[in-house]
Amino acid sequence: MTTTLLRTAGELHARTRTGRRAVVMTMGALHEGHATLIRTARGIAGPDGEVVVTVFVNPLQFGQGEDLDRYPRTLDADLALAEQSGADVVFAPAVDEVYPGGEPQVRITAGPMGERLEGSSRPGHFDGMLTVVAKLLHLTRPDVALYGQKDAQQLALIRRMVRDLNFGVEIVGVPTVREEDGLALSSRNRYLSAAERRTALALSGALFAGQDRHAAQEALRARAREVPATRARAEALSAIGESRAAADAHAVATAVPGGPAAVRAAARQVLDEAARLEPPLALDYLALVDPTDFTEIGDDFTGDAVLAVAARVGATRLIDNVPLTFTSFGAAS
Question: What is the pLDDT of residues 266-282, one digit of tens each?
Fold first, then answer.
């Protein structure tokens, strides 16, 4: 397959379409995470469809003092990776193609969800992100658009925008791709020195610690649900020599400090230790949130949640997250 490089929307619109068009939006500096998105898009579009990869470093989503000027621009390498991954087109417009009148006077506003977490740390970021996503959706006219789950809040806001403003496009989230040591793939990883990269592993380490604590909690809850908390239950467990273990399991599974509070505590312990490393990790936030609105969940929460973290290591700011699902003690597995 030969991937075509296009610079204008007119060139893209002139292409003959015979099947579904799947779009993967990027800011370039492509890596294996992007390749996974492109391969997934290829599978969705099928042999008769078309995969378009956009490469555009959007100035609207960089705040004052952020890394717009030094953000890596590697179009030749991006084109090669896109081709290897199955893209038909790389659409790499100039800034004046996307914003022909200069910075747009009318923009998408992310609303309350866009003011939390990443939005609080980077004011205006999500307004700029949604504005360019809306523009690129109009410019590329896809049937489906794919985004990585590493940017969980971004994905949630795009889904909300598409639903609230009646965009006729399907949004697909693709799981986070990680390096062998667990670090989430990011174009910003290349900024890290060897020492900084070792410290940066605390982000995924904290998430995995919270995830492990959650898994243990849910396993204990499932174990405690197997037999009703009655004398018959105690006798049955005692018969197999597990009375104390089972009692502990039941106590831990039903204790108020369990669930979300325990998950947060496990993750924060790793981050606190990383703050004492050299170079240190500077925590921006650790949050356990409802993915529908990115508000913190309570200890009685049940359902899907996202454990998210953001931190700086040296001059580089990184984010990561993992999805979790909380069950109630009385619910079936």
Answer: 999 999 999 999 999 99
Tell me how far the alpha carbon of residue 241 is from its chain's centroid: 44
Tokens 């579009």 belong to 45
Instruction: Give this prediction's pTM.
Output: 0.86
pLDDT digits 0-9 by tens, 173-203: 999 999 999 999 998 899 999 999 999 999 9
Whether 138 is a known active-site residue: answer no
Distances (CA, A) of 66 to 63, 104, 140, 217, 299: 5, 20, 28, 39, 36
CA 60 to chain centre: 20
- Closest of 46, 57, 56 to residue 143, by C-alpha: 46
Residue reference for tokens 């099947």? 19
Catalytic residue, from 34, 125, 214, 250: name it.
34
215: Cα within 13 Å, side-chain hemisphere: 8
Report the alpha-carbon angle 104-109-111, nearest 5. Answer: 170
Largest pairwise CA distance in the chain: 78
Tokens encoding 150: 């590493």
Question: How do beta strands 316-326 and 303-313 pair?
Answer: antiparallel
Which structure tokens are listed for 36? 């996974």
Prior bond of 279 cis (ω within 30°) = yes
